[in-house]
Amino acid sequence: MKNAAILVATLCMFWNAGADTIIGVPHRVKGPAGKVGLDGNVEPSGKADAVKKARAKKVSVEKLEIPDGSKHLGFPLDNKNRIDSLCGYELGLVVKVPVRPTLDDDGNILITQRLKKPFRKCTQATLSYSRINHALYGIKLFSDGDRKMTDDEAWQELENILDAIKAKFGDKVGLINKSKYFMKIEASMGLYSAQHFSLSARKVDLVKKASMKGTAPEKGWVFTVSFVDSAMHSYNPESKPAVANPPEGTDAL
Fold this sequence. Notes:
The chain has helices at residues 2-16, 19-23, 46-56, 151-169, 230-234; strands at 26-28, 34-36, 42-44, 71-72, 75-76, 85-86, 89-90, 102-104, 109-119, 122-129, 136-143, 176-179, 184-188, 195-206, 218-229. It has five helices and 15 strands. Strand 4 (71-72) and strand 5 form a beta hairpin. The protein has a nine-stranded antiparallel sheet. Helix content is 22%, strand content 32%. The protein has 253 residues and is α+β, with helices and mostly antiparallel strands.
């Protein structure tokens, strides 16, 4: 029974809490948009509604912290194996919603900026803030393309990134799954931490900004480091657990 519970938790970590699925793909939302109805009024689109909800939601704190004893997907969180920050970005910090926010398909708020200090080859970051609580839960670091690397050198760079993460966080890094065929490494911060790393390398077309029209693009390796705290993503500070009524005849302290 214990082994079955561990297996379920592991599957939840790698599939339900995967970095690529939770962070999502960004889409620029430029303001209210929609189709015109028969009455001549604009019917708001789903994206416009998401923008309105993001702007309307007010969070009274600057940073959210998940209380001790909290559960995620039915399992108690292992706080000793969770991390608080990555590359200077603190998990749980609440974002001030931009006038024209960028949202992913689930309504989470995305902000992309350059790293103050590069991490390996990664020079930029996309920060994901939860639509539920506006707190930072996802950090995606990514690089410019490297045209000179061979396939083996790109894989070695992924291994080097993993080594840097292990050197930084030590024993907190738990399960690791590597696939050289897919050029991907998955790692969790402990079995019940609800925190997950995904490292990947992709060979893509790279076009120089100054290239003439019609110039054939060169291939280059782009590296991505995605980190997701799925417990922070789904934490709702307004939802309080029910408290059982004390037995009759006793005093409530």
